[in-house]
Amino acid sequence: MSAGGQVAAELMQRRPRPDSATLIGSGKVEEIAGVAASTNADLVLFDHDLSPTQLRNLESALPCRVLDRTQLILDIFARHARTREGQLQVELAQLEYMLPRLTGRGKAMSQLGGGIGTRGPGETQLETDRRRIQRRIDQLKLDLEAVRRTRRQQRQRREAVPVPTVALVGYTNAGKSTLFNALTGAHVLSSSRMFATLDPKLRAIELPSRRRVLLSDTVGFIRNLPHTLVTSFRATLEEVEQAEVLLHVRDAASAYGDEQKAQVEKVLGELESLAKPRIEVLNKIDLLPEHERAALISRANSGPRDKGSAGAAATGAAVIPVSALTGEGLDTVLTAIDAALHSDPIIEADLRVPQHEGAALAAIDAGMIVHSREYEGNLVHLAVSGPASLVGRMRRFRAPQSA
After folding, report:
1. Is 40's pLDDT higher than 80?
2. Of 196, 199, 200, 203, which Cα lies nearest the Cα of 175?
3. What is the pTM of this model?
4. How far apart are CA 218 and CA 89, in angstroms?
5. Nearest to 319 by CA among 282, 290, 283
6. In this structure, are strands 245-251 and 212-217 parallel, antiparallel, or unpaired?
7. What are the CA-CA distances from residue 219 to residues 34, 89, 169, 250, 385 (Å)?
């Protein structure tokens, strides 16, 4: 599993309402205790959040440590935090979750441990009192605010030059980092484990129109993402909030695709980013049987022609099937991004550039599409299309009829 453990047994229970004392009821607690003892398990994981009271009661009744869903997610985050920013965010989320659960933790508080749920601050601060933890939380918030200020300054410098940002979003393990690497030529860690990407990555890419955009790879979403994580990782998720276009990467081979899509949209709603232009990218089509893959591509090709339009993307009327692993469909993704961008639009122009203006000619060749080129004496006549910002810089060369 993503946290480095091995599953010894799985148990499930259906009940009309959670038990206030133990979540699962006394009979199920006894059953779990028996299974844990027979398998020599040293940890019981609950796919549900536990209240402080439930956690204490379960640890008293079971022969091993108990972790709930949020603690497991935080542990996985702690494994993958590499930058100072990511480590600060993980520690803040862990301490805020730990604080109301300090009282009466019994054996979990008695000594330092190892393994799942004890990484990061868990190894060094389990026995600290509330006041010291609260002071540490306050300091982490100050440090993260400094990170946000630095990020805002970097963003302001980027905004001085009109380079829009496109953010990859999606459920964890949808293949965002593999797609990011395929589009940018970067070597960001891509892994089948959950939350392999924790710290945001930014790379510049060139679109078919010759415009350049910044592509951002972000942390994967998950169902019922704990609110403490959304709050703690606000600095990371700011890239989603500031992006002009979102690439919603989905796992075409997942049996839970619709549920995962709904969960991603729920988090986007919490970030007030649901109304942004979105392009749905169905990744991992190389894992589909041939007939399913062909049917998916056929449906996509028969959808709206403007797959990059905000309306089509937001309603889910059009999707782009791709394989980030093989490269299939990536050109279509770049074209869709081009169509969805509204800032720095592509315009056409006729230019007359003196041949001795080498810098201007080089900038035109580098940043515009040249449809025709003719020479007349010392002038080069060019029919071009390119970003409005670059065409504007060439206004002194524009032909009178196109000015």
Report:
1. yes
2. 196
3. 0.70
4. 14
5. 282
6. unpaired
7. 38, 12, 8, 14, 36
In this predicted model, what pLDDT tens digit does every residue of 71-102 receive, in sequence order?
888 887 777 666 777 788 788 888 888 887 76
Please tell me the distance from the alpha carbon of residue 78 to that of residue 89, in angstroms, as a whole number.
9
Burial code of 24-43, b = ≥16 C-beta within 10 A, e = fewer?
A: beeebbeebbeebeeeebeb
Do residues 208 and 136 lie in contact, with contact meaning Cβ atoms separated by under 8 Å?
no
Fold of 162-340: Rossmann fold (3.40.50)
Closest CA to 174 of 221, 214, 215: 221
C-alpha closest to that of 247 among 156, 165, 317, 135 = 165
Could you tell me if 92 and 133 are in contact, meaning their C-beta atoms sit under 8 angstroms apart?
no
- In angstroms, the CA 339 to CA 346 distance is 10
| 162-340 shares its CATH topology with 346-402 | no
- Locate tokens 């080129």: which residue? 373
Residue 83 gets the label, from left (phi > 0), alpha (psi -120 to 50) or beta, of beta
Helix (H, G, I), strand (E, B) or coil at 374: strand
**Residues 154-164: b if buried by 16+ CB within 10 A, e if exposed:** eeeeeeeeebb
**CA-CA distance, 262 to 203, in Å (whole number)?**
28
CATH topology of domain 346-402: Alpha-Beta Plaits (3.30.70)
Angle, CA of 269, 75 and 43, to the nearest 5°: 120
Q: How far apart are CA 233 and CA 219, in angstroms?
A: 9
Quick one: what percent of the chain has pLDDT higher than 90? 33
d(CA 97, CA 112): 18
> How confident is the model over 294-348, as pLDDT tens digits?
888 888 877 654 444 343 444 444 689 999 999 999 999 999 999 898 888 889 9
Amino acid identity of residue 153, one-letter, is Q
Contact 249, 291 (CB under 8 A): no
Q: At what angle do helices 176-184 and 330-340 cross, to 10 degrees?
A: 90
The helix-helix angle for 234-242 and 84-98 (nearest 10°) equals: 120
Please state the domain extents for the chain: 162-340, 346-402
| b/e burial code for range 177-213 (CB count within 10 A of at least 16 → b) | bbbbbbbbeeebebeeebbbbbbbbbbebebebbbbb
